[in-house]
Amino acid sequence: MRVAIFVDTSAATASAIVQIRAAASAFIDTLPPESEIVLVTTGRRTQVRVPPTTDKAKLKGSASGMLSENGPTALMDALADVDERFMRKAGDRWPVFVILTGDGGENSQQEVDEQEFNRWMSRVRPPRRSANAIVLKASTLACRAPIASALAQATHGHYASMGTRRQTSPKR
Q: Is the pLDDT of residue 142 over 80?
């Protein structure tokens, strides 16, 4: 496999960044040693933190240094960019997208409009690629959730969402 891990470090995930670091590190540990992994953050801008490698120590070191950035994330831009740069050229490796994102605003540039993104999604369907997503919900408005959900569904991957707000007990 060649696994691209997309980690949202935008304002939408700021309250959970410590848990996100731990989750990314734990996930890296679960992958087979021969898997190539690309670590990408999608805060204010797309940043390839670690290009394709099997060096788990390097990946985990980079994951432990992820910091939250203010502003929205550009998930559609990040997916299309990483696919073009790393996943289409994966050779005999199976490309897998893993997305951990918040439910904040989508900030992709005009380069990737909704119609173009839908065309891209139709090209990444199985058996070519697979996508799995977890959306951290901090609000009732979920802007990136439909993107992650549609991509996971189109590739027969898994999609889950979970709350990041702490539940308060009712006053007595």
A: no
